[in-house]
Here is the input.
Amino acid sequence: MSPSTVDGYAAMAMGQALEPLSYPAPPLGEHDVRVAISHCGVCFTDIQGIDDFYGITGFPFVPGHEIVGHVEALGREVTGLAEGDRVGIGWQGRSCERCAWCVQGEEQLCQDIAEMGTWERHGGFASSVTVDGRFAFPLPEAMAPEVAAVLMCAGVSVYSPLRACATGSGLRVGILGVGGLGHLAIQFAHALGCEVTALSSSPAKEQEAITFGADQFVVTGDRARMRSIDYAFDLVLCTAHGAIDWEELLMTLRKRGRLVLVGFPEVSMNPTDIVAHELSITGSFLGNRTKMREMLPFARDHGITPRVEQLPMAQVNEAIRRLKENLARYRIVLNNGMG
Ligand SMILES: [Zn+2]
Ligand SMILES: [Zn+2]
Here is the structure.
């Protein structure tokens, strides 16, 4: 491979399996870094991107946005990074720097966010990626690359809303879904001093959910158990993307409780309880750069560790199949065999 050519895996059209694709490395802007990729996690939104769920995908599409690698080239204006530095990159690879949200440091809300994804135009299932250096984050030394990779999207996406809500200890939190995001959310919520209940449709995940730090585990769809947690939570973090019984879920919130969506499930809710119980339903998207910088040492200090299966990058379609069939335990990270 010549550094001017990138070897990636692309969906050539909507919904298709990925296939090898070589393309010229993008020109290196003054503020850009080019990162030689060693690891890249597989996130459910990669699959939704391939399926053009968001209506923003351009093909050929190289997904991948939980990236770890080494800086191999820098633009002239990049500060704070040097060639050879080990960095992590998440979903956001750029920001406009001009809109009101960027100016106040909430770049994840950038008005032009749809064009700012790391996979725009080509993402991390590849030999290298080029992003704005401000979105390449130096990693704590001792952190394993496959761990750091998963923290870059799944990690910050659950840390950010939990951190915002868990201002004191003892917040009662329900985590819906014990998968890629959920198994990290349990760990972060526990480390933030919350009382954590894991909610999952898979009874088999109980023991591991407790190991991750859940105080209790409830199988969704078990009516008697679900009734026992009516009005139990200040906050429910929804990390699931399958079919969700919203009526059952909203009943677990205390009055004036809050439901935060961090995945992209189908949503259909009866307004009665939302209004009568004065519930808040919000979304939370990634995290800003401050949250990203704060999350990495927090994860290291609290021993927060994603459970990872590694596969060679060439097996990307197998990774996607496992994720689609809900077989990943709990996150799959692809590696380029660079250690
Ligand atoms: Zn993601
Ligand atoms: Zn902006």
About this structure: The mean pLDDT is 95. DSSP finds ten helices and 15 strands in the chain. The longest strand covers residues 32-42.
